[in-house]
User: Fold Phospholysine phosphohistidine inorganic pyrophosphate phosphatase from Phasianus colchicus.
Amino acid sequence: MAAWARAVRGLLLDISGVLYDSGGEGGGVPIAGSAEAVQRIKASGLKLRFCTNETQATREKFVKKLQGLGFDISVAEVTAPAPAACRLLKERGLRPHLLVHDDLVPEFADIDKTNPNCVVIGDAAENFSYANLNEAFRVLIGLEKPVLISLGKGRYYKETDGLKLDVGAYMKALEYACDVQAEVVGKPAKAFFESALAEMGVRPEQAIMIGDDIVSDVGGAQQCGMRAVQVRTGKYSLSRVGAGSILHLRPD
Ligand SMILES: [Mg+2]
Assistant:
């Protein structure tokens, strides 16, 4: 075994496209062998953390769905963008206008949302209407110093009925219209990976990220000094971006 492999202490697992494909009745379909893989990783003694950009539900609801699909997972094992965004909002005294999925709103329950001085955008799915995007645009362009916080910046993801546009596409629209640069909370932001590693108590060179997104999962982890593996499930199987690049084990 290579020296670097012997040094591995922990794994970060993406969820959508790695453990399951979301969508449809029941909220999704497990990917064959993934529940068993989680069990084996846990039994191996390696530290494990689930590192997701999921923003269509609170962590509680999301984890309950995954448990129902047969996964051994708890809320305390999940690093997700919304709680990280809430910490950032509180630290900086920011009051968000939310353009997010209805099921994510409870994550922001104790955040002051009166008289907004920033916009937070997540994967709002059906809430990405013209009216809602335009409302967010008006809030943002009306601010003296526009602050746009994006929960991840994925281009698209795979659901059971096909590929879906992700938050990154809408984030770019607001960036363009308001001539601002969004602050990304979630993968591929370095700080997000660093917080997941800190929660595991593992250094970057001791960890491997496993995901289906060549930019958010693989690229982000490598920027952080970790090794990363791209799986062939999820968006990989339907995408051209990243096709042909199956393994990216080196951070350079
Ligand atoms: Mg994924």
Observations:
- Residues 56 and 62 are 8 Å apart (CA to CA).
- The chain has two domains: 8-80+187-249, 81-184.
